[in-house]
Design a protein that fits this description.
Length: 354
């Protein structure tokens, strides 16, 4: 396997072995960047490294470590001559964050601070941060642009909103030169190779992995949480974004940081498609992708859920020149292909980190 000799800058991807991180690594390598992964593998499988090598044709350097270990982060930044950090490492379950908030503040806020300190100490000035649409206050009408009020309703969302604020203050103090926080809507799907994707070992909370596992026979049916929302078919509407499109949004953010190195600021940018799909539409599209009807039943609403959450993706287009390209149907097909691969090789299920 070849070692990476990048045509362009070196990027450190914290959490680069996770669901989103692994797709970001693939797209960065394809765009000519050198990539180093820092991951503690708490919520990711080491198998992903072999799979990344198969997809990219390169051995991606990996440092096993926790972002809260500031010296390890600083040592990695120095050792590889890193120019840009994409900080994806963190915990991502809303429910877990409610029952164990301190773990979430420790990992997500503490981890983020350690990364910022290591960057400041080593003079690495450019950061892309993995934020979330969860930072927005629930209940707004229409699509959400980046000026929509922030007001997360759970500890997980608060860790993301807090780190965004900390990044703003750090840029203002010249502890960082430039940062972009990417506010993800609902990532789903998998790489078209079927080699990387999301297949949680625990019962998934998110809709797409749950539909895929139901189609694979792991659950008797999809439970649709409520059909009395004020939406066209009564079920919740979300902006599902193909994880490969999402990964390409990170590359566009990195390109933007490289091209505009001189200006100090912190941009917040939505990564979504601008189109909303209901839970019923998701089950129907997935059934189309796998060629049989995935069973479902409508049950009561899930506490804390909102009716609609859809991005206004205008800023990403205007500033980063990025738009989502892959269809909802493609997302379902790729997620299903990945799940079938997992069933074939049941030893190497991939689990995710943000
Ligand atoms: C959830 C998180 C959000 C996180 C996002 C990541 C909550 C409250 N929010 O968002 O912070 O950024 O995942 O992707 O957990 N649904 C069902 N049946 C299921 C699962 C979901 O009907 O088994 C419905 C939900 O009611 C919702 C839609 O499907 O309408 C999407 O749910 P989900 O995938 O969990 O995402 P969000 O709740 O939007």
């Amino acid at each position: 396997m070849k070692m990476i000799v990048p045509e362009r800058q070196w990027v450190l991807a914290t959490g680069g072995a996770g669901y989103i991180g692994s797709h970001v690594v693939v797209e960065l390598v394809a765009a000519g960047f050198g990539v180093v992964i820092l991951d503690n593998f708490e919520n990711a499988s080491p198998d992903v490294l072999t799979r990344l090598a198969r997809i990219t044709g390169f051995d991606i350097p990996v440092v096993r470590g926790d972002v809260r270990d500031k010296s390890k982060v600083a040592e990695t930044l120095m050792r590889y001559g890193i120019d840009i950090v994409i900080h994806l490492a963190g915990k991502k379950s809303v429910g877990e964050s409610v029952s164990g908030p301190l773990d979430y503040y420790n990992a997500n806020v503490g981890g983020g601070i350690a990364v910022l300190e290591a960057m400041r100490e080593t003079g690495v000035g450019k950061l892309v941060f993995s934020s979330s649409a969860t930072v927005y206050k629930a209940g707004g009408a229409g699509t959400l642009d980046e000026n929509a009020p922030v007001g997360p309703s759970n500890p997980y969302g608060r860790t993301k909103a807090m780190l965004e604020e900390i990044i703003t203050d750090t840029v203002a103090s010249r502890g960082l030169t430039r940062a972009i926080s990417l506010r993800y809507f609902n990532p789903a799907g998998a790489h078209h190779s079927g080699l990387i994707g999301e297949n949680p070992t625990a019962k998934p909370n998110n809709l797409f992995p749950f539909i895929a596992q139901t189609a694979a026979g792991l659950h008797p049916k999809v439970l649709i949480f409520g059909d009395d929302y004020p939406t066209p078919d009564g079920t919740g509407v979300r902006d599902y974004i193909h994880v490969v499109d999402l990964a390409r949004g990170h590359v566009a953010a990195v390109e933007h940081l490289v091209a505009n190195a001189a200006t100090a600021d912190h941009l917040r940018v939505n990564l979504g498609t601008g189109a909303g799909y209901s839970v019923r539409a998701a089950v129907a599209a997935f059934s189309g992708a796998c060629g049989f009807d995935v069973p479902f039943e409508v049950v009561a609403r899930r506490p804390g859920d909102i009716a609609i959450c859809v991005a206004d993706p205008g800023r990403a287009k205007q500033l980063l020149g990025w738009t989502a390209k892959l269809s909802f149907e493609q997302m379902c097909a790729d997620q299903w292909a990945f799940h079938r691969t997992c069933e074939d090789h049941n030893t190497d299920r991939l689990v995710v980190s943000g």
